[in-house]
Amino acid sequence: MSSSAVFILDMQGKVLISRNYRGDVDMKLIEKFMPLLLEKEEEGTVTPVLLLTKECTFAYIKHNNLYIVSITQVNPNIALVFVFLHKLVEVMTEYFKELEEESIRDNFVTIYELMDELLDFGYPQTTDSKILKEYITQEGHKLEIVPRPPMAVTNAVSWRSDGIKYKKNEVFLDVIESVNLMAGSNGHILRSEIVGVVKMKVNLSGMPELRLGLNDKVLLESTGRGKAKSVELEDVKFHHCVRISKFEDDRTIFFVPPDGEFELMSYRLNTQVKPLIWITSVIERHAHSRVEYMVKAKSQFKKRSTANNVEIIIPVPADADSPKFKSGVGSVKYVPEENAIVWSIKSFPGGKEYLMRAHFGLPSVIGEDIEGRPPIQVRFEIPYFTTSGIQVRYLKIMEKSGYQALPWVRYITQNGDYQLRTS
């Protein structure tokens, strides 16, 4: 990254706090940042990176009433610079609840301590707030109590502290899949994908090693079990605790987990998804004075599953009034600020079909362009179910003391951007 200095400025460009890491730039160059930014704004050419001829490069982000600015003379890894600036904001927000001018003025000592630990000679170091809070507190005098940083800072496993103890050792693992879908009024799928995340909550003592096995297609085929039910994961991203080389070698997800809650991995599948909840609607206009909607909702997943907290959002004309509803299940309400009806069904079992009728008056005579009609949106959550068919085959927990730990696994499918066009 090689950031020479980092500044936090107010909205007028006044320096509230700064840290010179490399000593290779003139700190007075920051005075040229705000005039340069204003000049670019007037020209309409403002960008997150500002070049000051050959003198330096400014990279900045804006947060609340502050500018957080990195200044460098060399050609830096600009993506890493922005990741760090956002991480700096994240850490300070966790420390001070709100990062703004007042919290900067009230916490100078702590902020200088943090800036010293976050970067060393312009390169990112410890950026995990849980670790930082072990030896940098918001009360300056407490800094003397800890004579040296905790093991996690100098240990190879920088994301986990030594000496963690729990009376009951447990691991909670959630596989959450969001379905993004756009379907035409004829039932054809125009766009669909599954976006999944594996979230964990780890309450384990010591320094445990975990091994997670999924029904990953590449793994099962390589071990001669290609006919077993498997999933071909795409665009897989892991938390930095996972040994990537191990996964690339034999598709094993091997890691020493952070303590508490974190996102272990994410994945995506570009696949043809059958709509889990299908909506058909018939709209009848009567002499431009009233309009009737007949909406049918059908759950197209297996009977043993149930969708919870289903919301079907049906757009209606902006001038609709005098709403009347009739439904065999759930509740229906008119939301005029969204120009929509919201049909709520608390529990929607698989293989069921429900009907709802709505009637509105139309005081003004306006022709509605069918092509321009917004799509119906559906929100839902289906527990104990995944659309992709991904499964946790095993979760092994190994720790040198040999304690027994309970792993809990839960599957959830929910809507992402889920839209159905109407006829």
Automatic annotation (TrEMBL):
CDD domains in the cross-refs: AP-1_Mu1A_Cterm (cd09258), AP1_Mu_N (cd14835)
Record keywords: Membrane, Protein transport, Transport
MHD domain: residues covered: 168-421
Has UniProt tagged this entry with the keyword Protein transport?
yes
The family note in this entry says: Belongs to the adaptor complexes medium subunit family.
Q: What is this protein called?
A: MHD domain-containing protein
Question: Has UniProt tagged this entry with the keyword Protein transport?
Answer: yes
Cited PANTHER family: AP COMPLEX SUBUNIT MU
Q: Which InterPro entries match?
A: Adaptor_comp_med_subunit (IPR050431), AP2_Mu_C_sf (IPR036168), AP_mu_sigma_su (IPR022775), Clathrin_mu (IPR001392), Clathrin_mu_CS (IPR018240), Longin-like_dom_sf (IPR011012), MHD (IPR028565)
What organism does the UniProt record list as the source? Orchesella dallaii
Compartments, record wording: Endomembrane system
The main location is membrane
Q: Which domain of life is it from?
A: Eukaryota
